[in-house]
Design brief:
This protein is 31% helix and 28% strand. It is globular. The chain has 93 residues and is an alpha+beta fold.
Length: 93
């Protein structure tokens, strides 16, 4: 199943309180529960004015449907083709 990174422009995101982040998470999980198991939220990173979310879904349309139903922006959706980390440097080809 494809993996996607979603860029959400949310001014002041880095100043959101723990309670606000919890409420956003609960809204997202509620929408996901209604959409079924085909779409999964992996994690999110909060920066000063954006939230970057990683999702697994069959297509971009499902990501957009989730964003619309949850009232979240989805300013950019990019499919992930590979993931690398420090251990990648140690792999032999």
């Amino acid at each position: 199943m494809p993996k996607y990174v979603i860029e959400r422009e949310i001014p002041g995101a880095g100043k959101l309180t723990a309670d606000q982040l919890r409420a956003i998470s609960q809204t997202s999980c509620g929408v996901l529960g209604k959409m079924g198991p085909q779409i999964q939220w992996v994690n999110s990173q909060v920066t000063a004015d954006k939230i970057y979310c990683t999702y697994i879904a069959p297509n971009e349309d499902m990501i957009r449907e989730h964003a619309k139903a949850g009232g979240f922006p989805a300013n950019s959706i990019s499919q992930v083709f590979a993931t690398i980390d420090p251990t990648t440097a140690e792999q032999t080809v």
